[in-house]
Fold these 2 entries.
Entry 1:
Amino acid sequence: MGIVELAYDDLGAGTPWVFLHGFPLTRMLWEPQHVLAGEARLVLPDLRGHGGSPPNTHATMDAMARDVLALCDTLGIERFGLVGLSMGGYVAFELHRLAPERVTRMVLAATQAEPDTPEAAEGRERLAHQVDKDGIEPLLDAFLPKLLSPRALADEAIVSKVRAMVLSNDPEAMAATLRGMARRVDQRPRLGDITCPVLIVHGEVDGAIPLAHAQALERTLPRARLAEVEEAGHLVNLEVPEAFNATLRGFMEEALVEDALQASP
Ligand code: MLT
């Protein structure tokens, strides 16, 4: 299967950071982070099959990671910081496996290293079948309550943004991505290979991936620290952008200081 040319935003200038959105969303997820373009270069792709990228039914995490690497090649970006939220984190793990030397730092938001349990994989297959048959609405019904905290579900602006992202996606591509996530590999055996600094950010009331997964990541990754965000659900960057951006900004600043120290004689 070949590389897919991705739709993307390329904002700001300076140290490059590549942001990978979650499922079944688009790069619009990162709008509250656009302000960070004042300090760094932000590359925000739509992963294959999502948003403005062409619909695609070969939707493995590996294929998505290869598309992102190809996009970075096209943009002349050799090394970069990598931010992945949820499925974006699954893709980030794959990208790191493919090209560890290109990833300077990672931000793992609302994600996990564990694969699906057999029950979860079966549930995804059932949902994929339904989406193939009935279109995108069943996906919205299944995911919306998991993606947002009760507080965010009561916020009309947040809900309509998430609905717009989900409904803009191609049903066949979404069904394929559900199957791709169900087949993703267990990343735990190779967490020790991720030796770059890692910031883990997780909402305390994440209803899709419970906080315990982030705590396990922090215990296992060699150079990680966890920022737990109070009252935030799964889409932590969208629900509580001020806290998310402040944490990310701090991590980006640390990176600049470390890079300057390493560059000095
Ligand atoms: C996501 O936000 O990307 C999904 O909730 C991930 C998943 O379903 O495992």
Entry 2:
Amino acid sequence: MQPISRRTFLASSAAVMLAACSNDQQAAPSTTAPSGTAAATTAATPTTAATTTTTTVPQVELPGDPFTLGVSSGDPDVSTVVIWTRLAPDPLNGGGMPGDDVEVAWEISDTDDFATVVNSGRATATPAHGHSVHKVVELAPGTWFYRFLVGDYVSPVGRTIVPEAGVTETRFVTASCQNFEDGYWQAHTDIAAQQPDFVVFLGDFIYEGGAGDVSPESGNVRSHGTPEPTDLVAYRNRYALYRSQPELQASSAACPWMVIWDDHEVENNYASTIPQDPADTAGFAARRAEAYQAWWEHMPVRLDAPTGNADDEYRIYRANRWGELLGIALLDGRQYRDDQACGDVPLNLEPACPEALEPQRTMLGADQEAFVAATVGQQGTAWNVIAQQTVMSSLQLGEAIVNYDQWDGYSAARGRLTADLAARQVPNAVVLTGDIHAAGVGVVRNGAPGEAPIVAVEFVATSISSNGNIPEELEGAVQGFVDIIDAELVHRGYILHTVTTDQWRADYRIVTDAKNPDNPEVTTYQTYVVDNGSTEVRIGGQ
Ligand code: FE
Ligand code: CA
């Protein structure tokens, strides 16, 4: 049922990412580790000063290839990066691993054929953590390749990048919202082909909906095939379904990722421990804790595992950076927020009810608000990025709030954030947003829409595959929001950002038809440029 067969995919431009993939039953023998010792050679001339090492592969009996979920890496700084995999010979049925700890070897090379292994070691995969592996490895700045080895199996090869502190240019992706049932993942294939320096994933990595029907009238192109997950094993199986797909494996292996979550990693539009449907309140905190653990197990994040305790916070907001070029605050707009106001009625054109305007309302919670103030503009970088979930530019129509789930529904909290940016005169602030399944460019003001000073430019990425939520007929209305510079509601895709010290350029990549697996076309819809020191967005780069 794969839209693109592995064999077809291997012929694509991203083939190098999966060249050593042991998932392929037809894989060449050279992709299987020799018993005891991997194919690390000491004869090749190292192209770096690093030492060539030989890896001893842990010997363990496994019921099948454990590397069905691919590999990824994430959260690099200037000397380390996290490399990730999860062992799952039976990925859709709990993983299929023995109930013991399993040792896994990892290797780093400066070439994708691993002719020279420059670093290697071991990590322990435990049943309590779904046999996931999160290993922080030390690396000099540059491009590196990594893989894992256990028993008779070698993982696919991942490419990762550790930035130079003095980096002056980068290309990176923002993406979000990859509903498996709604569409195919040409966008991921395109991301892999672009070979960006990194991906910032803004949430909705999975969708929690049950098994949708795939009748022609349904609009679904494929089905989750299983009921809505509510416990750890079911969430693991849902992540495994998504991570089993070759397009996502290719983009995940192409470069390091910086991942935050949105709502569907637990449940649509939940807020703190309040579910969308009040009928689900009993046990929701425990469900959320299990969902959070499954998220951690499947993400290449530099975070400790959550406790699993329903009463505990699980802090994922954090500060990353890409050398001295980009400071990147990665935020969590779901765990600490007040419930959506005024019944969360969408596209309501009546004046907002008083609840939405209450001054104590919060999107981030007090501690995270303090984190933003201590991070954004304080990292000594040319650009100051706020990577987060919901639209911060005003989408209000007069007194009406058309989407209470976005920052408009938390206007006091937005006001505190923008007042802080204004008071500290934070330069070159850029908000990167997902969630809304539409592409847009806006400006964030410290005060009244259309009037108050601009404190940040906002680039909203459309969804990888999730259906649009805003009727196409309303595109003109959305473009009419006074603080929205441009919007595109029809297509799926992502944003490819090219940033230098002098200029930010955002290329909006759109998938021609995400419902059609036979149409691989991805094009650039529009390019937007912002110069250092300016908040003017130039459409078309002109
Ligand atoms: Fe979404
Ligand atoms: Ca969402």
